[in-house]
Design brief:
Number of strands: 0
Helix content: over 70%
Number of domains: 1
Shape: elongated
CATH topology: Heme Oxygenase, Chain A
CATH architecture: Up-down Bundle
Largest sheet: none
Structural class: mainly alpha
Length: about 110
């Protein structure tokens, strides 16, 4: 089962935010980096423009703010679970989607 789905199903809201944040953040950073270097015409230009765009950057900022807000109110134990979820969700996608990444800590 997908780590994000399992987290969303079984974990509290705070931990779900911790798991989602790197997904937004990494794609936004990759999009901005590729946008700065991509040759045109590019068959992936729509993807690049989307993830380098202002709307995605705003979504990352909003999710970061929400995550920070709930982390400040969370207990130390819950905050640690948020950190663990964040760390696990930063595993490279090729590894992340395999069963080992879901069942074994990074």
């Amino acid at each position: 089962m997908c780590y994000l789905l399992a987290t969303a199903y079984a974990e509290p809201y705070e931990v779900v935010l911790g798991a989602l944040l790197p997904c937004f953040w990494i794609y936004a950073e990759v999009g901005r980096d590729i946008h700065a270097r991509a040759a045109k015409p590019n068959p992936y230009q729509a993807w690049i423009d989307t993830y380098a765009g202002e709307e995605v950057q705003e979504a990352v900022e909003a999710l970061t703010e929400a995550t920070d807000e709930v982390a400040q109110a969370a207990s130390p134990a819950l905050r640690e679970r948020m950190h663990e979820a964040f760390t696990r969700a930063t595993v490279p996608p090729g590894v992340f989607w395999t069963q080992d990444a879901v069942t074994q800590p990074p």
